């Protein structure tokens, strides 16, 4: 039984060696070459079509287009723009979400530091609806600001009432 197994492996090895040698010695058949040439020509034609399509999408070479082709091109571009805008909005939303998370973390850190040093938090605290209380002395300072409108050059300006 062992002898048959060894001879079987030897037969398989000889077959594999023979097929490799025959493939190396035999050039591709004429039929195979014709097939490869036809396939290469088809690929070149497809590449030319894609180049022409790309130029039209860039707005080049539109002189030979019919009204129907121009409308189809416009619709294709509008669909592309819609897809691009949807993706852009998705990216913006993701950025906003990340910034909101960062804001929450910074507000929490700010509140912790204020508690640690016994200070009152400024700006936002915890959530976006909560506001810190501004001391009344600072409110009165802010309300003393003049908000009158002057028109003209500094030396000739007049107060508008």
TrEMBL record:
PROSITE patterns: K_BOX. It holds the Pfam family K-box. GO terms for cellular component: nucleus. InterPro entries: TF_Kbox. The keyword Zinc does not apply. Keywords: Coiled coil. Residues 33-123 form the K-box domain. GO terms for molecular function: DNA-binding transcription factor activity. Residues 33-109 form a coiled coil. This is K-box domain-containing protein. The lineage of its organism: Eukaryota, Viridiplantae, Streptophyta, Embryophyta, Tracheophyta.
């Amino acid at each position: 039984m062992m002898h048959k197994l060894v001879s079987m492996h030897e037969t398989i090895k000889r077959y594999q060696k023979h097929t490799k040698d025959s493939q190396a010695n035999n050039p591709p058949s004429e039929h195979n070459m014709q097939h490869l040439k036809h396939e290469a020509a088809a690929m070149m034609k497809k590449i030319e079509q894609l180049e022409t399509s790309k130029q039209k999408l860039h707005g080049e070479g539109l002189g030979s287009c019919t009204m129907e082709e121009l409308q189809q091109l416009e619709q294709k571009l509008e669909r592309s723009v819609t897809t691009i805008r949807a993706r852009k909005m998705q990216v913006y939303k993701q950025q906003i979400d990340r910034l909101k998370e960062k804001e929450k973390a910074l507000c929490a850190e700010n509140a912790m530091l204020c508690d640690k040093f016994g200070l009152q938090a400024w700006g936002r605290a915890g959530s976006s609806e909560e506001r810190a209380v501004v001391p009344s002395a600072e409110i009165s300072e802010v309300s003393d600001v003049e908000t009158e409108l002057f028109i003209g050059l500094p030396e000739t300006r007049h107060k508008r009432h």
